[in-house]
Amino acid sequence: MAEILEIRWHGRGGQGAKTAALLMGESAAEAGKYVQAFPEYGPERMGAPVTAYNRISNNPIRLHCSVQNPKYVVVLDPTFLGAVDFTNGILDGGAILINTSETPADWKQKLSLDGKNIRIYTVDASKISKEEVGGNFPNTPMLGALIKVTNVLPVEEALNAIRSKLTIKFRNKPELIDRNLKAIQRSFEEVLS
Amino acid sequence: MKIRHSLTGNEAMAEAMRQINPDVVAAYPITPQTEIVQLFSNSVADGKVNTEFVTVESEHSAMSATIGASAAGARAMTATSANGLAYMWEVVYIAASMRLPIVMPVVNRALSGPINIHCDHSDTMGARDSGWIQIYSENSQEAYDNLIQAMRVAEHSEIQLPVMVCMDGFIISHGMEVIEMEDDDTVRKFIGEHKANYSLLDVKNPITMGPLDLQDFYFEHKKQQAEAMKNSAAVIRDVAKEWEKLTGRSYDMIEEYRMEDAEIAIVAIGSATGTAKVVIDGLREKGVKAGLVKIRVFRPFPKEEIAKALANTKAVAIMDRAESFADFGGPLFRDIRASLYDHDVRPKMVSYVYGLGGRDVMPEDIASVYADLERLVKGEQLPMLNHLGVRE
């Protein structure tokens, strides 16, 4: 991996963008990478747009500022298209992953890509989450899609790392561990490009 | 044995506190310090430490209870941020003047107002004359290492001074990074047992602590306090060497980055110095002789080290993450200018106040400071006092 891989997460407060960024960071750390995971804290509360970031590298990371030019952008909630510029600063050759029932072709019309070569991936993470986890928690399925698309982590190691983190998070609701892992597995299979 | 973890700065501090296993922690929550106390209280509830955990009703009480415990001979800690530090102000000075080896993580946050929960150094910079040793951290790893080393410095029988271990709010406190922790035994052996020089609970050797101290002795006691602060520099270095032997991670009063032949340099404190190192690497590839001096220990002030590090530079920018409304730059700027006063050859020196209230510091911002320094070297004029990236 050359230099630092940067990722930006868009979600609404309560959808788990921060948690997903932490899980991504922890999975990458478990795989021996150097990582950062941090949310952009503002006055946001439940339902308001929030942003979180990852940096992943083979070398120690010294930058301590927000991510300006992510290679990957993950959108947990597409409904604030227009209010939030999902593609802002995205690197040419990068990719955007969207939680939607629509197709990448549909989203090619909606996003302003400024002639950049940006791959678009879609997966209905909310539907997967409702069916597998029993509620709209699109963060873990989107994490699955991201791991597949970025291909920087060995899948088995990533899943093991996620399992161990979910085991801590859901120590009072252990049934949610396997359900979330199933949701991640499904988004692996169902992500469209 | 080293343990590789991905932790936020707050988690790293809370883990260090668990390993330190203090006798007493009295604390009150305030953003962005809250998690340290919350996570540490989990360790208390889970029986992982033997700490008496006191939930007080304010920071004034937090520091007061910590002082009481420390005066009784206990290893006592608390933690705070910004307005919490301001609220304990009166007793912060008393902890130092009673020569109590209290160690306190401070998660740097803008001191209101207007109210703001994000990072700058206005809180601890205000406490620079309180008699506390101040150690600042660039990242989570340093926060962890600094907190453990601080125990040894504070409790050293010749020093007996409280220590603030500072870490940038949110940028570090809420950002997850990979750090190396040492195992519990290694840390506990390193810090050792706390043997207080004096204890209020030692009934066979009754003493009075914190009594009235008027014209006849107050001044002598203040001189002793100043002497202890002066002597702490050698102890800080010795403890750092010992920690390096154990862990391989080296620390000193300051850190010089690519200063060996630097013509232009930035001096700064905290998380922005990491970003600056990345900028320097880029400038060096273009042949620009740029360097950085990072201040790790701000009190006692490493005046000789800084003067030596800057001796061969042509222009220096001192970056303060605090405005002290003196119309003379921030506190670091003034201390560094004073440090160089007795030197015959002095670089040009300008002040940049930056990043107030959590304003993000991007590589371009730091690059613009180096560009200013290059212009200064070429003979162009620059204002002495600057506010980096502020909209006019």
Structure description:
With 193 residues, chain A is α/β, with parallel strands linked by helices. Chain A has a single domain, classed as 3-Layer(aba) Sandwich (Pyruvate-ferredoxin Oxidoreductase, domain 3). Chain A is 37% helix and 20% strand. Chain A is built from six helices and six strands. Chain A has helices spanning 17-30, 104-110, 125-132, 139-150, 155-169, 175-190; strands at 4-12, 34-40, 49-57, 72-75, 95-99, 119-123. Chain A has a six-stranded mixed beta sheet with strand order 2-3-1-4-5-6, with helices on both faces. In chain A, a hairpin with an 8-residue loop joins strand 2 (34-40) and strand 3. The model of chain A has no long low-confidence stretch (mean pLDDT 92). Chain B has 392 residues and is α/β, with parallel strands linked by helices. Chain B has two domains: 2-193 and 215-247, Thiamin diphosphate (ThDP)-binding fold, Pyr/PP domains (Rossmann fold, 3-Layer(aba) Sandwich); 254-387, Rossmann fold. Helices cover 40% and strands 19% of the residues of chain B. Chain B is built from 13 helices and 15 strands. In chain B, the strands form four sheets. Chain B has a six-stranded mixed beta sheet, with helices on both faces. In chain B, strands 5-7-6-12 form a four-stranded mixed beta sheet. In chain B, strands 3-2-4 form a three-stranded parallel beta sheet. In chain B, helix 2 links the parallel strand 2 (24-27) and strand 3 (52-55). In chain B, helix 3 (59-71) packs parallel to helix 5 (89-97) and helix 7 (140-155) crosses helix 9 (218-247). The longest helix of chain B is centred in the middle third of the chain and has 30 residues, at 218-247. Chain B starts with a strand and ends in a 5-residue tail after the last strand.
